[in-house]
Every structure is written in structure tokens, then in C-alpha cells.
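Dear colleagues,

As part of the handover before I leave the project, I'm documenting each prediction I ran so the next person doesn't have to rerun anything. This entry is a single chain, and its sequence is reproduced below.
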Amino acid sequence: MKSTALLKTEVPSRQTGLSLPTVDQIMVEERAGAFAKRSIKTSAKLAGLKLAVSMMDLTTLEGKDTPGKVAYLCRKALQPAEAKYNVPPCGAVCVYPNMVRYARKFLGESSPVNVASVATGFPSGQVPMKVKLEETRRAVADGADEIDMVIDRGAFLAGDHAKVFDEIAAIKEACGPAHLKVILETGELVTYDNVRIASQIAMEAGGDFIKTSTGKVNPAATMPVTLVMLEAIRDYFYATGIRIGMKPAGGIRNAKQALAYLVMVRETLGDDWLTPELFRFGASTLVNDVLMQIAKNVDGNYQSHDYFSLP
């Protein structure tokens, strides 16, 4: 597989000794655009759509969230569609820390759906480190299987990469048994080179996943920026043998886009990454469009949006 990056030493990796590449913007955007032009038909399309559902983190991150709304989201994640469509459960529900205990109570201890929680002063990350650690530990104690943390973009853009690394490493330790997803907020990182460097820092510091966005900043996930992150994951795997997960979040709204992302993952990282354990979509508005396409493939006709419950 050809890399879309032109290798040139920029910032030495702290742990692996890798040279971090300068990203060729034109090549990465052209290659990412090509994935969106692929045509997937019949049984392969249906399998891809169901796989996409299994990779979704259904999310509610609003000031008006209630235990009832969280329970509703959990119910939809467990059974996204009627049983006749044979759709798998979603990967996780993602909520604020003070809603974790309600999600855990509804789902139980052995649910196929994980409980994820944003933490560390989401979405800005502008809180003291003591608060970030306390919030993380509390969410895990209340039953979170996964923590979605935000990096300090101010520190990163100021060139204080050591601070970013140290904060991620400390949050990872505070997670205990929970997996850590590191949100880069790529829309604020300005360049693909910065995205590449931030991805490397997050992986070396112990992140189990790297994630594009909070969903609160535009642009959020795009195919080019996701491709840059996938290539960082690939190169890290070649260097260390460690598989890191990927989560594009925000801006993915229809089934065609979701399938294009899956093609990009397969051709960049291989079939091993086509699993909810290593790839997620952070896009609650996506689920109903995918379910509509599944119904069309099974029944031969489209259902109305009203046929599906709101995410």
C-alpha cells in the first residue's frame, strides 16, 4: 500500500523512534476522495450497513439530558431496529459523567453495549488537571467501560507536546480497566501535519483509540483527516505491533458516507480493524439513515423517517 505521506523527519517520536512524516495535502485529499466513489452492491452492502451499526456510539451530550433520555438511548443501542432485520447492537452509548450510572443500571453488567463517557472538561479541556483526573476516576467508578478525553489543544498549538503527552498518560492511568479514546479536535489543529503529530503523541501516551472530534467544532470528521489518522495507526502498528482503534466523530450523516469510511479503513489498515473493538462512528444522526438503507435492502422499499425512533 502506498503511503500518502512524504517521509521527512519533523518531530522525533518519544517511544518508537519513528520519524514523523510531512503529509502531502494534495495526495491525501485525492486518495480520500476516491474512497467516496466506490460502489458497494447487494449482500456486501447489507453486511457493511449492519457492520456500521455495530460500530456506532449513540451519543447524548446536552445540558438537558435526563436519566430517562439515557435509558431511551440505551434501549435503542441494544435493539436499533425490529428483530426481523437482524441488526446487531451498537458499540456503545456515550454520555456525560454524571449520567454514567444511569446507563450502567439500564444496560446491566454484561451488556453487549459499552458505556462510554466524555471526560477531562469536555469539550474544551480547559479545566485543571486535578479535575480531569477526578472526573475520569468518577466515571469509571460509576461503570464507564470507555473514557473519551480531549487533549489540551492550547498546549499542543503552543508547542508544549510534553504536556499533552503527560496529561494523556495520567488520564490513561486513571482509567484503570476502562479503554481510553483520545479526542484530538482536528478542526482546531489547523494542519494535517499537526493531526499526524497529535495522533502519534496520543498513541505513544497510551490511548487505545484516537478520535477526530468532540462534535462541537466544525469541521469535525472528514475523510482526509481520518485517512491521516489511519495512516498514523498503520505506521504505529508496523513499528510496535500494537493495534490502536479509530473513531471519526461528527459530520458523518448518511449510509453512503459510512460505507466509504469502512472501505477506507479496510484498504488502509486491513480486515482486522473492521470490528467495533477497533473502529467506531461517533455520529448519532447517522444511525437512522443506515437503518433506512437496511430496510430498503431487506424489504425492497424505503421506510419513512417516522418509522424509526430518534437517536
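The CA atoms of residues 147 and 180 lie 5 Å apart. The mean pLDDT is 91.

All the best with the project,
I.
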